Amino acid sequence: MTKGEDSLTGALRETKEEVGLTLSPEDGKLVYSVIGRVVNGVKFTDIVDVWLFEYDGPVSPEQATTKEVAQTAWMTKEQIKELFDTCKLVHTLGYFFTTEGL
C-alpha cells in the first residue's frame, strides 16, 4: 500500500500493475488479515491482508505497468500446496493453507 491508500485499493492497484488485470472492488473478499506475526521464529511487523476475487479469464502480464512478474499460471490449491511443500514458494505463504475461504 502507499500512504493514504486502503488495503483493497492497494490490492487492486498492485494487481493491475503486476499482472495487468483490472478487478472490480465489489468482487473482493478479505479472507485473511494480520498485523505482525512470527513465522519460523522470525518476527515480522508487516500488515498482511489477503483478498480473494473470482476471476475466470486470461492474465495479461504484457499489459502490466511493471516488470515484477515474469510468469503466471492458473493452479489448483493442491498444485500450490505441492510447490509450498517442496520449498518452491516462500515460507511466509503458509497462511494460505490454514485460511478458510481460500
Largest sheet report: 2 strands, antiparallel
Tell me the number of helical segments per DSSP (H or I, 4 or more residues long): 2
Mean pLDDT: 85
What letter string, H or E per element, gives the SSE order? HEEH
How many beta strands in the DSSP annotation?
Answer: 2
Helix/strand/pairing category: alpha+beta
> Roughly how much helix do the residues carry, as a percent range?
10-25%
Task: Report the β-strand fraction as a percent range.
Answer: 15-25%
Low-confidence residue ranges: none
Any overview of this molecule?
The chain has 102 residues and is an alpha+beta fold. It has one domain (7-97). The chain has helices at 7-19, 77-85; strands at residues 28-39, 42-53. It has a two-stranded antiparallel ribbon. It is globular and about 40 Å long. The two termini are 22 Å apart. The model has no long low-confidence stretch (mean pLDDT 85).
Task: Provide a brief overview of the structure.
The chain has 102 residues and is of the alpha+beta class. The protein has two helices and two strands.
Key words describing this protein structure:
two-stranded antiparallel sheet, 102 residues, alpha+beta, 2 strands, 24% strand, 22% helix
How are the secondary structure elements laid out?
Elements: H1 7-19, E1 28-39, E2 42-53, H2 77-85
Antiparallel strand pairs: 1-2
